[in-house]
Amino acid sequence: MNQATPVPGFIRWAGYIALTLLLAIPLAVLTVRSGAWQQGLGLYALACLGSTLLAIIFIVLLMLPRFADVRVETGKRLLFAVPGTLLLLALTAGGGAPPIHDITTDTDDPPVFVTAAQQRGEGANSLAIKPDFIAEQKKAYPDIATLKTGLAAAAAFDRAVQVATELGWDIYYQDREKGVIEAVVTTTVMAFKDDVVIRVRAGADGTRVDLRSVSRVGLGDLGANAARIRAFAAAFTQ
């Protein structure tokens, strides 16, 4: 009767580390959601990067004839590293986004928040307009522009409220006379909160709808604010 080939110690230990990193991912998410977002993101990045390095090691081992007898056990341990690797790939997919967190459809006259400062609390990113952010946005997101509609201003305001609500935004301020709507958007996994202001103005060429989306924490947003504005624009014009 043939005995199973023992799994080399370094492969077993690599598996233990991969499992530990896998468990660290939900812990990192909980840490971010608790408010310690910097520590949580650091742990998240470490877990994903470590998982990816281990995945590469396991794949190399699977290809080596020397470890052919333990390929099944190596493959099992590789599975622990797959989630973190996929998450890292998802993160790097947004790596081309500029390190900014304030996006607007009107770069010449961005909408101004009315009550968001009270909602954001201490330690949040400033709501002041940053010229360097505007310059970076123009290069990275040339498609982000004012929405023009044939709707009357009142109808466009109602449509904006409807779309924001359908997208799951939590509206905390609206002033029909000023044509201003403010809302907060909470991201699904990390529960980051971003504030959005919508401005509706009647003009000679129709009604103009402008948005500005600003993250409460962090320097870069991996393109999230631009994607949010695009989603609103697509839904508004349907």
Query: How widely separated are the two ends?
Result: 70 Å
Structural class, from helix and strand content?
alpha+beta
Secondary structure tally: strands: 6
Order of helices and strands: HHHEHHEHEEEEH
The helix content, as a percent range, equals 40-55%
Radius of gyration over C-alpha positions, nearest whole angstrom? 24 Å
Short description:
With 238 residues, this protein is of the alpha+beta class. Helix content is 49%, strand content 17%.
Overview of the structural elements:
- By secondary structure, this protein is an alpha+beta fold.
- It has 2 domains: 9-93; 102-236, Alpha-D-Glucose-1,6-Bisphosphate, Chain A, domain 4.
- Helices cover 49% and strands 17% of the residues.
- The protein is built from 7 helices and 6 strands, in the order αααβααβαββββα.
- Strands 1, 2, 3, 4, 5 and 6 form a 6-stranded antiparallel sheet that branches.
- α1 packs antiparallel against α2 (37-63) and α1 (9-33) runs parallel beside α3 (71-93).
- The radius of gyration is 24 Å and the shape is elongated.
- 31% of the residues are buried.
Keywords:
2 domains; 238 residues; Alpha-D-Glucose-1,6-Bisphosphate, Chain A, domain 4; alpha+beta; elongated
How is the topology of this model organized?
Layout lengths: L8 H25 L3 H27 L7 H23 L8 E3 L11 H5 L10 H10 L6 E3 L3 H14 L3 E6 L4 E7 L6 E11 L2 E10 L8 H13 L2
Antiparallel strand pairs: 1-6, 2-6, 3-4, 4-5, 5-6
Helix pairs in contact: 1-2, 1-3, 2-3
